[in-house]
C-alpha cells in the first residue's frame, strides 16, 4: 500500500530512541504511514544495532518503515541540523535517561520553543513523582510493580517471557501522542506527553490490586493461584499438552456431553462455574485422567468441534509456520543486515479489513541523512518571503 494512502500519511516524526520502548512507539506510527526519521548518533548509530544475546533482534523488529539520519548531536552543527528538522516535524519521541536530552539542548522546553505545534513524547521509567529521576529497565519495573512476583513460583520472582512493559509503554505513548495531536487541532499548539514503564506495569497489576481490595487477602502468584474458572488448565495428553478453558455453564454442559461425562454433568456440586471452582481439587484430576488416554490431536479435534477455548503449547519459533499468521498477513518478511530473510509480526490490528505492510526495510546508519537535510533546506526555502 502506498504511504500516501495510509491513515498517518503526512505526519512527520523525529525519533531519538534506543532499545525497545521508544522504538515501539515509532514503529506503530511508521507502520500507519507517518514519516518516522530516526536520529542516530555518529559515528555508528543506535547502539541497539550491536546488541547480542537476548537483545539481538531488538533493532530488527522495531525499526522497519523508518528513515535514518546520522548526526553528531554533541556538536553545534549537529544540534542546529536537528532543530532545522524539528521545524518540519509534528512529533518527537525520546526514551533516553532523565536529563539526557536537556544536556544536548534538545529537551522538551527547547524543542517546543523552536516548534510550538510539536508533540514531544517521552517514554521514561517513571512519570512525575519521587521516582522520576531513577533509571529503569523493563525487568526493573516488573520487579517493582509486582509482575515478576505474579509470574514466578512463590519466593522466586520471574520476569515475563517478553519485553512486555517496554512494548506496552510504547503503545501508551502512541495513545498519548494521538490524543495530543487531536487536541492540537483545537488549540493549534503542541505539548509534552509522557508514558512510564512503572505506571504501565502498575496498570497490568490493576486486576490483582482490585482482587486484594475486594477480598482483603494478598494475591498469590499465578503459578499457585485459584483461577476465576473451574476448568482453566494445561492438560497432559498421551503425546503432548493442551490448554483448555471451560469458562461458562453452557461450555461446561457441552464439554460433558461431548466427552461422555454424564456423571460430572449431572453432579449438583458442579452446576455453576463458582461451584466447579470450589471443587477443583478433585474435578481437575478427574478430567486429567480422561485426557491422558487421548492423543493431543484427538483431544484438540474434540474441543475444537465443541467450540471450546483451547491452545497447543507453542514456542516462539512455531509462529514462523503458524497457518493463521501466514494466511492472514500477520507476518512481514524483513531482510536482515546480512541479507537473510526473517519473518516478523505485523501490527496486531486491522482497519477496514486491511493490515499494515512493510514499505521500507531496516535503514542503514545515516542512509537518509543527505536526502532529509535536502528536504529541510527546500522546505525552509519555500517559507522565505519573496
Describe the structure.
The chain is an alpha/beta fold and 386 residues long. It folds into two domains: 3-204 and 329-383, Rossmann fold, CATH 3.40.50.10540; 228-316, formyl-coa transferase, domain 3, CATH 3.30.1540. 41% of the residues lie in helices and 15% in strands. The protein has helices at residues 21-31, 58-62, 76-86, 100-103, 108-114, 138-145, 147-151, 164-187, 197-204, 206-215, 249-258, 262-266, 273-278, 280-292, 296-305, 323-328, 369-383, and strands spanning 12-16, 35-41, 66-71, 91-94, 119-124, 191-196, 231-236, 241-246, 310-312, 331-335, 341-345. The protein has a six-stranded parallel beta sheet, sandwiched between helices. A three-stranded antiparallel beta sheet has the order 7-8-9. It has a two-stranded antiparallel ribbon with strand order 10-11. Helix 8 (164-187) packs across helix 9. The longest helix is centred in the middle third of the chain and has 24 residues, at 164-187. It is elongated and about 80 Å long. The chain starts with 11 loop residues before the first strand and ends with a helix.
State the main characteristics.
41% helix; 386 residues; 17 helices; formyl-coa transferase, domain 3; 3-stranded antiparallel β-sheet; 6-stranded parallel β-sheet; alpha/beta; single chain; 2 domains
List the domain count as a whole number.
Answer: 2
Just name the CATH architecture of the largest domain.
3-Layer(aba) Sandwich
Strand order of the largest sheet: 3-2-1-4-5-6
- Strand fraction equals 15-25%
Outline type: elongated
The average pLDDT value, as a whole number, equals 96
The helix/strand order is: EHEHEHEHHEHHHEHHEEHHHHHEHEEH
Helix residue percentage: 40-55%
What's the CATH topology label of the largest domain? Rossmann fold
Count of individual helical segments: 17
Compute the CA-based radius of gyration: 25 Å
What is the CATH class name of the largest domain?
Alpha Beta
Number of strands: 11
Secondary structure class reads alpha/beta
Biggest beta sheet summary: 6 strands, parallel
N- to C-terminal distance: 38 Å
Give start-end ranges of low-pLDDT stretches: none
